[in-house]
Each structure stands twice: as C-alpha cells, then as structure tokens.
Amino acid sequence: MQLLRTAQDMAMACRGAARPMGLVPTMGALHEGHLSLVRQARQDNDSLAATIFVNPTQFGEGEDLTEYPRPLEDDLAALDREGVDLVYVPPVSEVYPPGFNTWVDVPGLGDLLEGAHRPGHFRGVATVVAKLFNLIRPDRAYFGQKDGQQTVVIRRLARDLDIGVDVVVLPTVREADGLALSSRNAYLNDEERRAAPVVYRALCKAQRLWETGVTDARMLREETRRVLEAEPLVERIDYVSVADTETLDELDHIDGAAMVSVAVQIGRPRLIDNVVLGQ
Ligand code: AMP
Question: What is the per-residue pLDDT for 279?
Fold first, then answer.
C-alpha cells in the first residue's frame, strides 16, 4: 500500500493505477462499517484508493473537530490488510491552501434534515468529495447508507457536475443490538450505550408498520417518535423524517420508496440512523 500526502503525488499515483478504480472516502477511526465498503470496493475494482481526512469544513462551531479520534497507525494497518493500493492522507493545508475560495453547494437537499441542524455541513461534505473525485478520478466511489442524506447529496453533485463516477451505496453495518456502527459511539457511557439501540428500534417500528400496510407517513413519524420518547436518556429529538429518497421532501403518503431517518441526542453524541422502505 502506498501512502500519499500531497495532491500532486496522489494525482500521479492515480494516473498509473489499474482500472476500474474504486474509492472509499473516510474520516478515519475505521470500524467494520468502513471496512465493509473497502471489501466490496476491493472485489469490484482492479485498484482501490481510500482517503483519511477529517474535513474541518463539515464541522460546525462547537462540534467535535478537535476531539475527533485519529488512530492513524491502526487505520493504515487495517486498510493495508484489506488490500487497499493507495491511501491519501493529506494535511488540511493541502486540501484548503491559503486563498482557497471555491465551494460546492447543493442547496435544498443540503439544507434539510442534518443540514438544518448543522448549517454548512453539506457544503463542506460536497466540496471535499468533489475535490477528491476530481483529484482521484475513480470509476466507482463507495458510501454507507448510514449517512443517508449524504448519499443523496453526493449522487446529486456527481450527476450535476458530470463527474462520471458511479456512486455505490452499501447497507449500514450494525452492532448485534442494532446500533449503527459509528466512530462517535465511543462518546457514549455504559448507560447511554445500553439505551442507544432505541434509535434502530424506533426505525424498525416504522418498517414493521409499513410492512403491514401502513402508508400514512404522518402515522409512521408519530409511531417512530413515540418509541424514541419512551427512552429517558434520549435528551432531544432533532427530527423524525419520512421523506422521498431523491428529493428528501417529507411525504404525506408512501407509494414508492421512502427513507425514514432520525437524529437524537443521547449523552454527548448526536446519533443519526435511517432505514429505506420499498427498495
Ligand atoms: P466517515 O468516516 O464517518 O466519514 O464515514 C466514511 C464512510 O463510511 C461514509 O460513506 C459512511 O456512510 C460510511 N459508514 C460509516 N458508518 C457506517 C456503518 N455503520 N455502516 C456502513 N457504512 C458506514
């Protein structure tokens, strides 16, 4: 595995890489969720690049940018074991050099749900992902359904900017009790960790109701919220959404696919999760 630290070196390494080439962008602190993307990408492609970059522009004020875990040695060892060919780990100054002033914004999609609670978050995500796509020029890029809105925003930007990358979305990897794997789960104390599976339980409630024929989206939101509210350690519910999978518009009635998504505060971390119905 080759480790690249500058855009120039990475571009050069990518130019010589076998095609098709896969890309797995990450912020590091890798877990089985990330590694499921790496494994699929390894199978699908003749060469594989991964990136580790804790992107400052997608963190809001008061968020955990400085404390975000950065176990670089372990991450590199894991990527090497999984057969990654190129890993790009740039310093912030390489991605945002002095004078940097061009942004990729996906207004609408990027302002809803997570965007409404984390202003500027998706501008940061879209900008860094567009930069990585331009630099690396992968044939396929792999993202987790765990960050459902992020996949919608990235699909949109890839289409709108004619980037010519196939965006592949893979299922959320969960703990045995349903909690979606996330680097931020480490912020939960024992009691909060025991309460956290309520997030997936609430989503499963919506899924079960839908499977038994309930298509009234308002009822699904209410029932999902009811499960979350029954858990005393849920300090705040930021949203419970039943939305169109492409526009993210809230639905009245489900007749095709829908994404049920939630964001809640349990202790220090804000936990997000979703399930897709009808896909
Ligand atoms: P992050 O390092 O949090 O930016 O995540 C990098 C990629 O891994 C994103 O595409 C995430 O959606 C994906 N990912 C994170 N957690 C999971 C999970 N539990 N299951 C599947 N994919 C995940």
Answer: 80
- Residue 215's region, left for phi above 0, alpha for psi from -120 to 50, else beta, is alpha
Half-sphere exposure of 110 (CA within 13 A, CB side): 19
How many C-beta atoms surround the C-beta of residue 273 within 10 A?
A: 24
Q: For residue 204, give the H/E element and its range.
A: helix 198-211
* pLDDT of res. 129: 99
Q: Ligand 1 centre from 143 Cα, in Å?
A: 7
Distance from residue 68's CA to the centre of ligand 1 (Å) = 14
User: Is residue 4 a contact partner of residue 10, using CB atoms and an 8 Å limit?
Assistant: yes
CATH architecture, domain defined by 2-170: 3-Layer(aba) Sandwich (3.40)
Active site residue 34: yes
pLDDT tens digit sequence for 21-58: 999 999 999 999 999 999 999 999 999 999 999 999 99
Protein fold of 183-274: Pantoate--beta-alanine Ligase; Chain: A,domain 2 (3.30.1300)
pLDDT at 246: 97
Q: pLDDT, tens digit, for every residue of 254-264?
A: 999 999 999 99
Whole-number Å distance, alpha carbon 69 to ligand 1 midpoint, is 14
Instruction: Judge if the beta carbon of residue 173 lies within 6 A of ligand 1.
Output: yes
Residues 100 and 59 sit within 8 Å (Cβ to Cβ): no
Measured N-to-C along each axis, helices 148-160 and 121-136 cross at an angle, to the nearest 10 degrees, of 50
State pTM to two decimals. 0.98
Catalytic residue among 34, 117, 121, 253: 34
Burial class (CB in 10 A: 0-12, 13-18, 19+), 66: exposed
Q: Give residue limits of the domains in the chain.
A: 2-170, 183-274
CA-proximal residue: ligand 1, atom 18 (nearest)? 33
Residues 6 or more apart from 202 whose CB is under 8 A from it?
224, 225, 227, 228, 240, 262
